[in-house]
Amino acid sequence: MASPSQAAASARDVGAAAPTSRRRAAAPPTRGKRRLTATVAAYVLVLPAALFYIAFVISPIVRTAQYSLYEWDGISPATWAGLANYVQVFANPTLVGSILNSFELILYFSVVPVILGLFAANVIRGIATSRLATVARTVLFLPQVIPLVAAGIMWTWQLSTKGVVNQFLELVGLGAVARAWLGDTQTALPAVGVIGAWVQLGLCLLLLLAGMTKIDPALYEAARIDGAGPVREFFSITLPSVRQELAVCVTITVISALASFDIIYISTQGGPANSTLVPGLQIYYLAFFQRDIGTASALAMVLMVLVLLVVIPLQRVLRGRDA
Amino acid sequence: MSQSQRSQSRNLLATGIFLVTAFAVTACAPPGGDAPAPEGSSGPVFGGGEPTCGEEDVVLNMYAETGFPLPIELADEFTRQYPNVTFETREDQFAVLTQNAPRVLRDSPPDLMRLPQMSELAEGGLLLDLDPYAEVFGWTQWPESQLEQLRVDEDGRRGDGPLYAMGLNFSMTGVFYNKELAAQIGMSEAPATLEEFDGYLKAAKDAGLTPMAQFNGGATGGLLFPLQGLMASYGETAPINDWIYQKPDATIDTPDNLAAAEHLQRWVDAGYFAPDINSMDYSQMMSRFIGGESVFIFSGDWESGNLDTQMPDNAGFFLVPPLEADGPQGAMSAPLTYGISAFAENPDCAAFFLDWVATNEEARTITVEVGGSHPMGPADAFMPEVAAGSVTEATLAAGDVINEKDGAMDFIANATGAIYAQSWTPNVQRLVAGEQDSAGLLSAVQSDYETEVAD
Fold first, then answer.
1. One domain, residues B351 and B440
2. Where are the alpha helices (DSSP H) in B235-281?
């Protein structure tokens, strides 16, 4: 647990220093009264946002938790089910399989783009002055501005039997491995993962590059004088300096892996043979096609808890003591 | 206590109070069943005589399926004949209709709505009981097989009980073939037996053609089309319907069905299907067939009009052939289901429209020419002339064969709410991937079925 002094230090880090000093300056004469007014004013200012937050974020979560305890088709009166829906989530191999698939997606949605992003950002930082850097940055960031649905459709074509991917494989003499990548139970999940990696790479690159531009060039000069090579520079200066950005990257991409929906819905709809089924998709099918709101809500709650269980420790590890 | 500790406990307290209040507010009442029923009729309103649309202006609120011009064309013709009736039509994809059906039927009740799987909607009291109209209009005199699938009993089982929907037509599935490609493999007319069909499939494969491009990708188990056709060739259709209607002790795992599934597996193993069927959706299948990239496809007569336009004189149709010439055969045959919301504003006029679709000569002509399928109605009702040699002519003729042989079945995907998505689709996809065999397919589906019916 952070000590009070550390907490205060981190509060200053996020820019709370100015209001604190103002409060201190104005404090002595009618300290209690002014403080009360300030507090009331603060709450009044926060109120509209808080109301929206409660109405559109907290309330749906609470309602989902409530629905997860009922057997309900969405229309007729619900019957109390207790924890039966949660038992079903963990007892049904299809639902468990969907959760496992989403964990496998972390590899493609998070690990691959973060590593590639680090590598690409480091290279672009090295050639920062050349025009190539701008071109590389733009090209690599492009997937981020394309709507996910469009990306999904585009990749579905590219990964089809006569798509660009197979054409390329045939061109380089690997025609034997060409296949319907999204239609094969063995390759469908990695193929969907490739689409995800392609989309996430741009975001990671941009975040990490932004972090790298903040590093003082003097550090590199000093390292070079001490005889450090590019690899040593990367591990001793660049990597520790972009830890915050790395934490953001990993958090966002891990969440998008665990809660993925759109890319998979467009490219495979969870098939073939459930090999790309993920909880997000399964919640949608359960709620809207099977009208089993209870189980859908239970799975949604489990998914939320899973995301928190994965992301909170990750935050602690990656951001270190600052967290 | 330091300041930060105080603020921490304050935050905790606030969060606690908030959560308790939130749970208290939402957890008191169970969800559902609390919304008052919207204003509107709760049943037929005609008193004596036949229900009509009357003389005053009526706006019929219709919720149709995107991509099917038939209801729109019928509505236009109806307005031409009855100028006091206009239609306010909203269209959506079938998946959207499926998602929204209960809410729409209750909250903004349409007079006419294209229905997805309807038994839950009927059981939930969202659909109007059409029995009084059936009596008055004489629908009860039609062949019962047309309306059987639209009846739902109080336990939510189909096949029996009050009538909850009507069809704009009834469609039927079979095999479409490309006549030019068929000629290349020596097939000048439809095969008379399954063995003959097997021979043509082998010839197509040997000639380097794709024998069958069948959709089976994503959330679509398109191999059920050939599978169910084969089931009807190997055994009777009545037990299959019993299974779909959830009759007690019904099973899909029978020796006849196993023989059919084994036949399908032989086709898969022999490479008669396109290698990428597990990533192919319905529209890809149609575009490949129309583009001449596949000799055969399994689909339904709803494509007849489309194929007559897109590949005139080049498409043919036949039912999955019997084991022996003139032996039993069958087809999936289901009405294009439209229902009236239990809360609809103009139920009488909507019912009158449905009767008109089945009985008016102009309407029946539109049904055949635009919809490509057989109109509902009495067996001896008017049938329009269709172009000789067209695929529409072939599908209508096939419909007569099915009537003669009493081979109409509902779709095995409609047995329960989840059986298609959760059981049939993944299992037929596994069959293609070599991860499931024909015996395993049927026993897995039967086991899922029993679990679901027991719930």
1. no
2. 238-244, 255-269
A92-322, CATH topology level: MetI-like fold (1.10.3720)
Same domain, B124 and B202: no
* Short-list B129, B64, B83, B47, CA closest to B340: B129
- Counted domains in chain B: 2
CB B9 within 8 A of CB B80: no
How far, in Å, CA of B421 to CA of B417, rounded?
Answer: 9
- A272 interaction partners in chain B (CB closer than 8 Å): 216-218, 278-279, 426, 429-430, 432-433
Chain A residues with CB inside 8 Å of B429's CB? Answer: 185, 271-273
**CA A268 to chain centroid:** 21
- What pLDDT shows up at residue B48? 64
Give the pair of three-digit tokens for residue A151. 């990306």
**Cα distances (angstroms) measured from residue A113 to each of A188, A243, B158:** 19, 16, 51
Q: Which residues in chain A land under pLDDT 70?
A: 1-29, 320-323
Predicted structure pTM score:
0.84
Across B119-142, average pLDDT? 90
pLDDT at B155 over 90: no
Asked if B288 and B294 touch (Cβ cutoff 8 Å), the reply is: yes
Q: What is the DSSP code string of B126-160?
A: -B---HHHHHHHTGGGS-HHHHHTTEE-TTS-EEE
Say if the Cβ atoms of A269 and B219 lie within 8 Å: yes
Condensed to tens digits (0 to 9), the pLDDT of residues B370-389 reads: 888 889 988 788 989 888 88
- Tell which A residues from 66 to 95 touch B, by Cβ distance under 8 Å: 66-67, 70, 72-80, 94
- Six-digit token pair at B263? 């036949």
- Is A244 at the interface with chain B, CB within 8 A? no
Q: Is the pLDDT of residue B37 over 60?
A: no
Q: What pLDDT, in 10s, does the model give residues B197-209?
A: 999 999 999 999 9
